[in-house]
Each structure stands twice: as structure tokens, then as C-alpha cells.
Amino acid sequence: FLWRAGFIVMALVFIFLFIDFVIDDGGGVIFTVLMSWFFALAMAPAVERLSKHMKRGLATLIVMVSVGLFLAAFFAAFGALLVDQLIEIVESIPGLAAQGLTWFNQTFGQSYTAEELLAQINLDQDALRRIAADAAKGIFGFAVSLIGGVFGLFTFALIAFYLSADGPRLRRYLATMLPQQSQSVFLNVWDITAEKTGRYVAARAILAAVNSFFSGIVFAVIGLPYWLPLALWTGIVAQFVPTIGTYISIILPVIVGLLSGNPWLGVIVLVYALIYQQIENLTIEPRISAKAVDVHPAYGFVAVLLGASLFGVAGALLAVPVGAMALALFQIYVKRHELIEDSDDESDRPTPTSSP
Questions:
Q1: Burial of 240: CB neighbours in 10 Å, binned 0-12, 13-18, 19+
Q2: How confident is the model over 174-207, as pLDDT tens digits?
Q3: 215: closest CA among 254, 186, 241?
Q4: Alpha-carbon torsion 57, 58, 62, 65, what sign?
Q5: What's the burial of 63, exposed, middle or buried (CB within 10 Å: 0-12/13-18/19+)?
Q6: What are phi and psi of 111, to 5 degrees?
């Protein structure tokens, strides 16, 4: 018995160390596969409809290429906007600094010059050269990271393609590896996850389209520069970035409006965003989200916080569909009992007796 217990303990320790080794060295690959699987589930509704008229692999390829072209067009338009705004901000810095220095000298009766201020904070020519060299190193590091990100994106897309194209066959194959009493549980988990993920993405896409449509109309009417990419940015970021997406999405249009020739455009954009957000929260989103995932807002908020703390941005993006899947499985497999309610009727309460 002691020898057998010792071998069991050693086997458990070995299994634990092996799992820890796999997670440490291959955690990135495992997480990429998991994200690819959820992306394949998100594409499933569109792929299922197209696969009725063509092979599933071709349907998957068409959906992925369509998503890629849309993202490429969006980032191209947004990239042009970002570059122009950065150039405008950089070009305006010397003028703003000169205006601020002039105001300071006139207000406080001083006669400082830009060269004197730079000398006081030790910003001479050598210091500026060092800053430029550090910036060049940072740009080189960003380029290397960008190349790695492109490779990671290619890996993600390849895995997602195979998981989507061979999804039904993979589902059946994995189910046959389990005992019959466990197959129904596995199939339910797979189907519920696919349903919740697909509905969640579809609901977010509809809300993003509605938001972008009305934002585009308002931005075009008031004459906001780059109104089309800003409208797309507002709708997509507000719906697909959990919790804080609403606030992030409107910052950029407000800044563009404030930096334009008419600063009142930024104020109008901010007022519009506040009004539209209230209308969406009270009318549009409850109806669409309730049909999509049927998750209470408080539960979704906590799920987003937990997912972000565990897995970062990707965890926050997947928190709501995963939480909805867990809640659905909990409702299916957890036995519920009738609630014993306390009666508040006066007739059920004992009648107090008066003491002599």
C-alpha cells in the first residue's frame, strides 16, 4: 500500500510539473488556438449559410477574406487620419510653445527666451541627439514587434481557417474519444459555445452598424474632417471593446473636432455621443443583447473584469460569450429545487395571548 501510494503521489507530481511546463513554454500557442477556435465559432453563422451553396472550405475562405478586406480598408483610412493628426499636432507644438512663453512673459513681467528655458532643463544639442537616438531605437523595436505581430496574425488566421472548415468533423472526432455518457455533455458545451459566440458577435456587429450609421450622418452634417473613418471607429470600438469602449471611441472624434478650424465641432460631437449613448442603452441595446446572449448587465460587467484581469484584452473580448456559455450550462446541469417561501399572512402567525 505504501509503495502504491508513493507511486500515485509521484505520478501526480509528474503530471502537475508536465502541465506547468506545457503552459509556461506553450501557453502562447494554446491561447492562439483558443482564440482561433472562438473566431471560427464567430464565423460559423455566415459559413453555414454559404456552405449550403459551396464547399465549406471555400465558404470559410470567402468569409475570412471579406473580414480581412474590411479591416484593411478600415485601418488604411484610420491610419491616414492618425498620421495627418499626428503631423498637425507636431507642427503646432512650436507655435503653441511660443504663444505660451509670450503669454507667460507678458503676464508675469518676465523676458525668458526658448533657448534659456532649454538650457535650464539641460536640453542642449547633445541631449537632443540622445533623445533622437532613443526614439530611433524605439521605432526599430516597434518595427520588429510589428513583424512578429504579422506572423502571429498569419498563424491565427491559418488555425482559424482549419477549425472553421473542418469544424463539424472535428466536433464528431473529439466526441468519439469520450465515453458515451460524456459525449452529450461535450456536444452541449460545443453547441452552446458556438451559439452564444455567434449571437454575441452578430449583436455587436448590428449595434456597431447602427452606431456608425447615425454617427456618420451627424459627422457629415456638421462638417467634421474624416467623418467616414471616424464614424466607423466610433461604432466598432464602442461595441467590440468591452466596458470602456464607449469612452475610448468618442475621444478621437472630439480631439479631431477641437483641432479643426472650428473647435465647436468637438463640443457638438461630445454632446451627440452623450445623447446617443443614453438612447442606445435605453432602447436599442437591451432588445438586441437580450436576444443574443441573455446575460444580465451586471453579470457581463463582472465577467469582463475577470476576463481582463486573467487574460488581458483578449480575455475581456471573450468574457461575455464564455460567461453566457457557462451560465447556460449551469442552468442545464445544476439541479434546482423549489424555494420554501416564508408566509407573511397574518392568519399564519400565532395569536399573541394577553398576560393577566
A1: middle
A2: 888 888 878 888 888 888 878 777 777 778 888 8
A3: 254
A4: positive
A5: buried
A6: -140, 45
